[in-house]
Amino acid sequence: LLKKLGHRSIVLVGIMGCGKSTVGKRLAQRLGLEFIDADSEIERAANMTVSEIFAEHGEPYFRSGEERVIARILREGPQVLATGGGAFMSDATRQEISEHGVSIWLKVDFETVMARVRRRSTRPLLQNPDPEGTMRNLLAKREPVYARAALTVTSKEVPHETVVDQIVITLA
Ligand code: S3P
């Protein structure tokens, strides 16, 4: 699998709460690759949290930083990269990913995602009076784009380890 990957990274995409970070960490461990979380890299580069960047500079500023950080990370592959839920919406980022990585969509249903983000959400996009409506809109807009990932793994209410197994089998 590693030989097949070469310098390409495994890039996890999907809506917030789909398990990109948890699955990504375990997958990286399993394969002996480095795990990188794009949001954490953006926070490090900006020396601010994602919420602070949204609040102080707005979403477009965050998105251009996100594009730059992901493009840089992809040049340092192979690694396992968890992207933020909006990253794959960028044409430039999808292009970078197809050149330097293998994209995997972790597909989850609405209920699973809402249960997860309700438990822990500092996500700026959901800090409004109707997070459920926001999530439905985001899913409707984004799912057709996530579906353009090279591979799709359905990550319902199954242990993250099962998702990792599925990815390893699918990529092998
Ligand atoms: C976002 C998802 C977040 C983060 C930012 C915007 C989005 O990442 O990048 O809050 O647009 O869906 P996670 O998917 O890791 O929560």
Automatic annotation (TrEMBL):
Keywords: Amino-acid biosynthesis, Aromatic amino acid biosynthesis, ATP-binding, Cytoplasm, Kinase, Magnesium, Metal-binding, Nucleotide-binding, Transferase. Its cofactor is Mg(2+). Pathway: Metabolic intermediate biosynthesis; chorismate biosynthesis; chorismate from D-erythrose 4-phosphate and phosphoenolpyruvate: step 5/7. Mg(2+) binds at residue 21. It is an enzyme of class 2 (transferase). The keyword Glycoprotein does not apply. It is found in: Cytoplasm. It comes from the Bacteria. It catalyses: shikimate + ATP = 3-phosphoshikimate + ADP + H(+). Its EC number is 2.7.1.71. ATP binds at residues 17-22, 123. Substrate binds at residues 39, 63, 85, 142. Binds 1 Mg(2+) ion per subunit. GO terms for molecular function: shikimate kinase activity. Catalyzes the specific phosphorylation of the 3-hydroxyl group of shikimic acid using ATP as a cosubstrate. Monomer. Belongs to the shikimate kinase family. This is Shikimate kinase. The gene is aroK. The chain holds residues 27 to 198 of 213 of the full protein.
